[in-house]
Amino acid sequence: MYKLMNMKRFGFYLVLCSLLTAASGRVFGERKGVALHPHVGQNLDLLEVWIKARMAYAGLPGLSIGIVQDQELVYSKGFGFADIKDKTPATPETLYRIASHSKLFAAIGIMQLRDQGELQLDDPVKKHLPGFNITITHPEAHQVTIRHLLTHSSGLPREAGSAYWLDFDFPSRDEVLARLGSQETILPSESLFKYSNLAYALLGEIIAQKTNQSFADYVEDNIMAPLGMGDSSVVIRESDKSKLAVGYGRRMPDGTREAFPFVDAQGMAAATGVTSSIDDMAKFVLWQLKLRKQGGKKLIAARTLKEMQRPHWLVGDWKHGRGLGFGIVHTIERELIGHGGGYPGYRTATNISSREDIGVIVFANSLDSEVYIGSPRSITDRIFDWIVPAINEAKEGKEGLQIRPEWKALVGTYQMPWQDNHIMFLDGTMSLIDPNTPNPKKTLNPLEHISGNIFKISRKFRTFDYGSVGETVSFEFGPDKKVKRAKIGALYAKPIQF
Questions:
Q1: Which fold has domain 402-498?
Q2: What pLDDT is stored for residue 307 in this prediction?
């Protein structure tokens, strides 16, 4: 009964927020549904502050994020720039080269053909690609099969025989096949996990030869179009290139970044060629969650998708595995299904927790996002650490902190030579955090109200600290009624905007 009452209260809250949004324009912007709940919103505020701080100090160009929950894109937002030169902002509609996410589309295409009786997963590759003449260095090993290609257990080389990741001269379909004769297997098939872009290029070629279509045409007609992914493509349309984020190299010592030219994956498209946006990939994630939850058949049968998303191969331990196309990570809290990717100028990650009916998508347009933020995958980790528990707690009826109106003006980032301090409402307290750390929740100090604009830094959650624990935080206002500076312990800090 208590849970039911809380859910009703939450439903009323959402209706109220919707009315306020409709009355005043796009107030909440990219937040919908459960993301409007105060408790969830405060954790989203933390996520945004953290990302902005890390990007600012590292000079990262841009990234876009999406969170899907309960059949809705509840949060989507762009940070920084899709194009630094033109100051084009990154948005949820910005297109990114999503790199190895492409393998998911290749795997689905193969499973569609399997379910149609066109092939079997344990068929030798040579049955469908007579030109598969790579030298088998371990003749005692199993024949290389389609299943081996899907699970990265084929023993094939990682690449198709040239340095196209350096010179960006990707091979054509014909070149991929022609080079097979001069290559050899690295490992016996079915012995160890070995990631292979070549394996997925061959899967794309199998699709092309079985359907008499190019891999690009097949995927766009049979997967993207039915899902309404109108901005996504395997071969990007000329009309869409203006929406494509510029891909940037790593930040050099002088602070500059190289803007990479557009790179066509050509014959490696099934491994790394797809272009998409947060909005479109959200549709791809929603399709998976709905099919798993409700059953039926759209693109593939629900049982086929579940077959693809269960472990077929374990990678060294019980924490990591490979499905058919999908990567699988087991943690104490949940099982995450998805894929990541890297391409000249781009880093990407998508992870789904089907048990919680939640998916997270992160696309970035720089190679070194993994150095400064911790990689798009690390951002998804923070979302599952911070946002997903908040969503689950909100559904159970947890309230957000009741905020005094006069305290709202105190929220913000305050800079001092030593570090930045961010004042915010989080997890039931008004708190002070350092946003420019790998995990700012570990720096959290609650603030206890003393009087007026004076607070005390609490030691509630931290037992060891070199900072100003136990001392006061106070605020001085200017004539415009905005905070002019904050005094944290004995040091003054000025408000800044990232």
A1: Lipocalin (2.40.128)
A2: 98
